Amino acid sequence: MSYKEIADFRQEKIHSWLKTILPSADYKMEPASSDASFRRYFRVSQQDNTWIVMDAPPRYEDTTPFINIAEFLLSQGINVPKIHAKEPELGFLLLSDLGSTQYLEKLNDNSAMTLYPLAIDELIQFQLSNTADIELPYYDTALLKQEMLLFPEWFLNKHLNIEPPVFLEAIYQCLIDSALEQPKVFVHRDYHSRNLMMANDKQPGVIDFQDAVIGPISYDLVSLLRDCYISWPEDKINSWIQYYLSNAQQHGLLADISIKQFIRWFDLMGLQRHIKVLGIFSRLNYRDNKPNYMNDLPLTLRYVHQISKKYPELAELSGFLEQQPQIANIL
C-alpha cells in the first residue's frame, strides 16, 4: 500500500476505536499536527469537549515510553497531556488537549520576558523529579556519539558532498567529556518553542517528551534558549541563563557550580545538539521527504559556528566551516 492508503486505513481504524470510547458517535475529527517521526495527531471535538488522538503506527513507533513518561510527569506536577484512553497494540492514544497555540507563535520581544521564565520554572520542576521512580535510558557516550555521527553522514556527505575532516573525532570527544561531567537529571531532549503550548497563564503545556533520558543538566536549557526555530540576542540569553542558575541553586541544583562553568557546559552541550540537528534536518529531507526542516539549517549552522569560534579547542571546526564555500553560503 502507498503511504496515503496506509494513512487512510489507519484513519478508518481511529474512527472505529473512537466510537467505542467516546460518549457518542457524533464527533468531529481534524488534523492537529504531525512531527518529525511517523506520528500524527488529530483534534477530536464533541459538544464542548476536545481531545487529541495520537496515531503512532506500531511498526514504526512504540507508545510505551510516551505512556510511562506521561504518567510519571503528571505525578510530578508537570503540565503534560493526560491519557484518557489507550490502545497500544493499534498505536492509538486519546489525550487531553493542551490547545493549538505553540510558544513559537506567541514569542516576541515583550512576551519572551514572561514566557521564558515560565518555561525555565517548568524545566527546573523536571530536573527536581525523582528519576528513581522511572526507568529511562542514559545519555551515555554511545548515544552522544551516535547522534553526532549524523552530521558527517547526512549534512556534510549527503547534503553538501563534503568529505568529513579527521579532526571531528577530537571534537566529539571534547563534547562528550563536557556532557558526562555534568550532574544528571531528567532530560526532555526536545524542550523548545514548538513543544511548549500556551496552555494557561502559569505553566506551559509540554509535549513530545517520549524520547526522554537521564542526562546532562544543561541540555534542555540550551534546547530552549538556542532554539533551532527562533533566535535571541546573547544579552537576553545570558539573562535567562542567570535566571535559571539562580533558581536552580535555590532548589538545591548546581549548588557549587559557577556561572562561568555552567556557561561552558551550556555552550558545549548546545554544540553537540546542533551538530546532531544539522544531520537530523538533512536526513528528514533526503530520507523522509520532509523538506521544510531545511529552512532551519542556517540558524542551526550559525549556532555551531558561533560556539566553535568561542573556544580555542574548537578552532579547527570554526576554520573548517569558514573554508567551505557551500557552508559559507548557508552562513
Walk me through this protein's architecture.
- The chain has helices at 3-21, 64-75, 103-106, 112-128, 141-148, 150-159, 168-180, 219-225, 234-250, 259-286, 297-310, 315-323, 325-330; strands at 28-34, 40-46, 49-55, 83-87, 92-96, 184-187, 196-197, 205-206, 213-216.
- The mean pLDDT is 93.
- With 331 residues, it is of the alpha+beta class.
- The longest helix is centred in the C-terminal third of the chain and has 28 residues, at 259-286.
- 50% of the residues lie in helices and 13% in strands.
- It has 2 domains: 3-96, 2-Layer Sandwich (Phosphorylase Kinase, domain 1); 103-330, Aminoglycoside phosphotransferase (APH), C-terminal lobe (Aminoglycoside 3'-phosphotransferase, Chain: A, domain 2, Alpha-Beta Complex).
- The two termini are 41 Å apart.
- Helix 8 crosses helix 10 and helix 11 crosses helix 12.
- The strands form 3 sheets. It has a 5-stranded antiparallel beta sheet with strand order 1-2-3-5-4, with helices on both faces. A two-stranded antiparallel sheet has the order 6-9.
